């Protein structure tokens, strides 16, 4: 359903105003540019979406200062339109609009629309602006060494952050508008010839099939396009750091940028990807590998420690060293609840504290830590409600949860923990093993855009193992991860780049002779 | 799909109901036993338990008030061992838990009766460990359990540490675990050994307030070696004989041996030097010579000089050779003492039967009918090889410096 732009300027401006509900931020202005006395021009824009400097300086000012048309006047509509487009409006991106709907969309996208009395087409000049946050250090994924910039809510800024890092003509940005009401810009970014074309198609297909009112955050997109909903594990990675995203793009992954959020999605991802931090590649490979193993360990600790404690202390006491058993038993003397109940109380208390910490106003933030530390740390033990060992278990579990670089994977382990606790408290280690087996089977069945979730381990891909549990030195990573990137071009860098000192005779020649 | 999920959920939920009375036990429902003893009086087995009181231990380590005994001992009596254990439910608030039981003390009376039922209990029940250390005592074993130990508040654990340390660094008495004992008495030799534990001195120290003194009137101590034929107690070996048994069964790790360095006429002929054995290996080779059993035993050991008052030049290889010779003689004597004791009692605690069985499987069939006799009439061909590898950080004996001609 399209309607042509009304010929009469006044009618057109009134139509726009009424369509937008006479919104106070809509500015419509009608004037006669200099150099002509017969043509009326209307300028329409939405305040807050445009940059006032551009509108005033590049459009209104130039219109008013337009060069004299001389003997060409009076111009007809088309002539004047072309004159405006080619000589007057000094803005980079310009579009010709022929329908009223297009006009509205352009306005809402932050364009300034120029209408000419008597014309049925309008000119839209991109004058982006409005309030936006500047590029800051990401708050959720911090590193010690590495770039300190983070994505912002502004799509254009985010694209530029990626573009600035990859100066390749092969870098592609494909734009979608998703959300019937919000009309959110979603951009898919990848490098042609590195990304697997099939996966790019699949992602585009899934994005196109989204039919919803609104996309306010990349989480909306994630839920619509992920391979499986009923799983605790995320199958898309979200990142706030341009360097991580660019790293992924360079390995053949595909980024999905959503306007209005600094969290950019990356797909397809495998399980190990959630344990990689961009810092791994900036630090020396030995410490990076060590930290990565620590992260995997922490994931299991955060998932299993309370359940193991419950299982061992209620079913398998023979597994503990005698001295430890005695000290645990001494602590359990006088605690009123079974270990399972105790663990649940403590874990839930911690979750409450954690959630409170996130929701609480900054100003009273320090209060929560004091109350939390005193309540679950000391008072509960002294009052004999819980044993000291349980406090240690719960706090270590909580701390190790924060080691996992990806928050969504950390959340997964948090949820699984409770299931494991029930299993450990009812079936002992047997229950925990069964639970882990169930998880493993489940994970082996997961796919992320067709890529097996456990990829380098199951199915085994020896070449991909260079960056899973350990990170091999940069010069040894000669190929891109198999299956994820384009199968035709797997070469990442030239082999044999291991640095070595110059030949012995060359180096010591001066000294020995 | 949904129906399936519901079914799965229902079955999991039903499982949850089942587990309510399973073997889940909270830590504060356990009576952790550190030591157990078994005695037999008449028809009745008397089983005693040394239970750990965790809260008392933690106040002890916290330097708290003290005054509470870290252990508590009680005994039950019944016609079978497990019935006796079950009877403890009549008096103990906690469920007895044997997985951390460190020592098992049997009385000589029980050992004379036979330990088969005890071993059966240990092998049959899943939560009792076959790695428990076995000890034997004369008289009532409850005395051992009630005796308090300084330094180590849980005496059961303490005794186990004593025996395992001793067998590792002194090798006089072997560390006998239940499974090893059981394997030995059902092995070819059908004989086993067990170290003795005793309370030396009197009266017993069984109250915490007695622990305040620096020296207790009595303490737990390892004694002789008990010898078993099949599952029954047979007799005692002295510590010297037991040391020889350790050599013959290749269980010497480290040991201390005193000897006379010889040569110097100024010595009184007593022991004036000591070495520590750093390693020792025993090889046993049976031979049948003219239908007669001959055991060839070769002991190869090495050690370090730890003490001497010999004035000889220790850097002279001849002196070292001579010293090695007298150490070899000493070891030889120790081993021969054990061999004589074994022959005396006609009990093959040396495991020679297994060696013969392996080498002469055919002849073994005949021999095993009358193995004790065969064993007693066997010859021992013993060669001892000792190498003094180090003489410590002092080249000369201090004694030699005292001599006027010394520097």
Q: How would you portray this structure in words?
A:
The complex is a heterodimer of chains A (513) and B (407). With 513 residues, chain A is α+β, with helices and mostly antiparallel strands. Chain A has 15 helices and twelve strands. In chain A, the strands form three sheets. Chain A has a five-stranded antiparallel β-sheet with strand order 1-2-4-5-3. The model of chain A is unreliable at 509-513 (pLDDT under 50). Chain B is of the alpha/beta class. Chain B has two domains: 27-237, no CATH class; 240-407, Nutrient germinant receptor protein C, domain 3 (GMP Synthetase, Chain A, domain 3, 2-Layer Sandwich), CATH 3.30.300. In chain B, the strands form three sheets. In chain B, strands 1, 2, 3, 4, 5 and 6 form a six-stranded mixed β-sheet that branches. A four-stranded mixed β-sheet of chain B has the order 10-11-12-13, with helices on both faces. In chain B, α9 crosses α10. The mean pLDDT of chain B is 87. The chains are: A alpha+beta (513), B alpha/beta (407). Chain A binds chain B through residues 313-315, 317-318, 322, 325-335, 338-339, 425-428, and chain B through 15-16, 19, 22-28, 30, 32, 34, 52, 54-55, 57-58, 97, 99-100, 102, 127, 129, 154, 157.
Any chance you could write out the topology, listing elements then pairs?
The complex is a heterodimer of chains A (513) and B (407).
Chain A: H1 9-19, E1 26-31, E2 41-46, H2 52-64, H3 77-88, E3 94-97, H4 100-108, E4 111-116, E5 122-126, H5 155-165, E6 171-178, E7 184-191, H6 197-208, H7 218-225, E8 237-239, H8 242-250, E9 254-258, E10 264-267, H9 285-314, H10 322-332, H11 339-359, H12 365-382, H13 388-401, H14 407-445, E11 447-448, E12 451-452, H15 504-512
Helix pairs in contact in A: 5-8, 9-13, 9-14, 11-12, 11-13, 11-14
Chain B: H1 2-18, E1 30-41, E2 44-52, H2 54-61, E3 71-78, H3 81-87, E4 95-97, E5 103-107, H4 108-113, H5 116-124, E6 133-137, H6 142-146, H7 155-169, H8 178-186, E7 191-200, E8 219-229, E9 232-237, H9 239-248, E10 255-259, E11 273-289, E12 292-308, H10 317-345, H11 352-359, H12 361-367, H13 371-376, E13 379-390, H14 398-402
Helix pairs in contact in B: 9-10, 11-12
């Amino acid at each position: 359903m399209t309607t042509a732009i009304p010929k009469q300027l006044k009618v057109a401006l009134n139509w726009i105003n009424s369509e937008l509900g006479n919104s106070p931020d809509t500015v419509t202005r009608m004037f006669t540019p200099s150099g002509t006395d017969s043509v009326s021009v209307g300028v329409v824009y939405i305040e807050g979406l445009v940059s006032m400097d551009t509108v005033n300086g590049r459009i209104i000012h130039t219109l008013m200062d337009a060069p004299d048309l001389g003997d060409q006047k009076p111009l007809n509509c088309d002539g004047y339109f072309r004159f405006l487009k080619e000589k007057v409006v000094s803005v980079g991106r310009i579009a010709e609009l022929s329908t009223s709907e297009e006009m509205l969309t352009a306005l809402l996208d932050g364009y300034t629309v120029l209408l000419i009395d008597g014309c049925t087409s309008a000119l839209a000049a991109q004058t982006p602006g409005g309030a936006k946050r500047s590029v800051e250090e990401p708050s959720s994924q911090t590193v010690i060494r590495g770039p300190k910039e983070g994505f912002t809510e502004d799509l254009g800024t985010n694209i530029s952050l990626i573009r600035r890092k990859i100066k390749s003509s092969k870098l592609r940005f494909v734009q979608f508008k998703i959300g019937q009401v919000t009309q959110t810009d979603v951009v898919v970014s990848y490098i042609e010839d590195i990304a697997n074309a099939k996966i790019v198609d699949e992602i585009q297909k899934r994005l196109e099939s989204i039919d919803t009112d609104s996309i306010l955050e990349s989480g909306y997109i994630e839920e619509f396009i992920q391979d499986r909903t009923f799983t605790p594990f995320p199958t898309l990675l979200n990142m706030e750091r341009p360097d991580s995203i660019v790293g992924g793009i360079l390995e053949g992954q595909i980024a999905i940028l959503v306007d209005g959020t600094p969290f950019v999605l990356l797909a397809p991802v495998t399980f190990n990807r959630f344990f990689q931090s961009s810092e791994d590649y900036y630090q020396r490979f030995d410490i990076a590998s060590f930290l990565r193993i620590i992260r995997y360990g922490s994931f299991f600790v955060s998932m299993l420690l309370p359940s193991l404690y419950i299982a061992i202390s209620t079913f398998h006491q023979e597994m503990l060293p005698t001295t430890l058993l005695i000290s645990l038993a001494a602590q359990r003397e006088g605690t009123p609840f079974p270990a399972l109940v105790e663990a649940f109380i403590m874990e839930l208390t911690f979750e409450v504290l954690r959630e409170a910490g996130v929701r609480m106003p900054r100003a009273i933030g320090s209060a929560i830590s004091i109350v939390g530390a005193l309540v679950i740390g000391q008072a509960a033990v002294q009052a004999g409600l819980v044993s000291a060992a349980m406090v240690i278990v719960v706090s270590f579990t909580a701390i190790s949860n924060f080691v996992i670089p990806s928050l969504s994977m950390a959340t997964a382990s948090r949820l699984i923990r409770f299931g494991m606790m029930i299993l450990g408290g009812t079936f002992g280690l047997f229950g925990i093993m069964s639970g882990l087996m169930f998880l493993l089977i489940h994970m082996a069945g997961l796919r992320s855009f067709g890529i097996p979730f456990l990829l380098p381990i199951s199915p085994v891909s020896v070449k991909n193992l260079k960056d899973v549990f350990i990170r091999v030195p940069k010069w040894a990573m000669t190929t891109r991860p198999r299956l994820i990137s384009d199968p035709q071009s797997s070469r990442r860098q030239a082999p044999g780049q291991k640095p070595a000192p110059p030949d012995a005779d060359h180096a010591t020649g001066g000294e020995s002779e | 799909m949904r129906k399936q999920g519901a079914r799965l959920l229902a079955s999991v939920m039903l499982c949850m109901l089942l587990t309510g009375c399973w073997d889940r036990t909270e830590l504060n429902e356990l009576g952790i036993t550190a030591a157990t003893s078994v005695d037999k009086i008449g028809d009745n087995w008397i089983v005693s338990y040394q239970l750990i009181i965790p809260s008392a231990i933690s106040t002890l380590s916290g330097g708290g008030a003290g005054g509470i005994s870290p252990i508590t001992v009680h005994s039950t009596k019944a016609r079978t061992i497990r019935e006796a254990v079950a009877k403890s439910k009549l008096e103990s608030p906690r469920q007895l838990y044997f997985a951390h039981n460190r020592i098992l003390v049997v009385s000589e009376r029980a050992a004379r009766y036979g330990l088969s039922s005890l071993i059966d209990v240990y092998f049959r029940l899943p939560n009792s460990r076959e790695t428990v250390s076995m000890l034997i005592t004369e008289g009532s074993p409850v005395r051992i359990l009630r005796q308090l130990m300084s330094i180590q508040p849980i005496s059961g654990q303490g005794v186990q540490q004593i025996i395992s340390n001793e067998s590792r660094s002194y090798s006089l008495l072997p560390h006998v675990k239940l499974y090893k004992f059981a394997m030995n008495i059902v092995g070819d030799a059908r004989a086993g050994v067990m170290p003795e534990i005793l309370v030396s001195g009197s009266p017993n120290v069984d109250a915490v307030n007695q622990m305040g003194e620096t020296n207790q009137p009595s303490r737990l101590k390892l004694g002789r070696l008990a010898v078993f034929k099949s599952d029954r107690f047979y007799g005692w070996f002295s510590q010297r004989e037991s040391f020889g048994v350790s050599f013959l069964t290749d269980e010497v790790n480290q040991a201390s041996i005193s000897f006379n360095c010889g040569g110097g006429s100024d010595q009184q002929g007593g022991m004036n030097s000591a070495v520590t054995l750093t390693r020792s290996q025993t090889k046993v080779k049976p031979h049948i010579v003219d239908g007669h059993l001959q055991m060839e035993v070769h002991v190869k050991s090495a050690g370090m000089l730890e003490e001497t008052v010999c004035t000889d030049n220790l850097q002279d290889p001849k002196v070292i050779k001579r010293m090695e010779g007298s150490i070899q003689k000493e070891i030889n004597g120790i081993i021969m003492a054990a061999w004589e004791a074994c022959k005396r009692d006609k009990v093959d605690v040396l495991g020679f039967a297994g060696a013969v069985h392996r080498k002469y499987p055919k002849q073994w069939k005949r021999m095993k009918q009358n193995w004790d006799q065969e064993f007693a009439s066997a010859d021992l061909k013993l060669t001892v090889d000792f190498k003094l590898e180090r003489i410590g950080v002092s080249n000369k004996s201090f004694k030699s410096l005292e001599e006027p001609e010394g520097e």
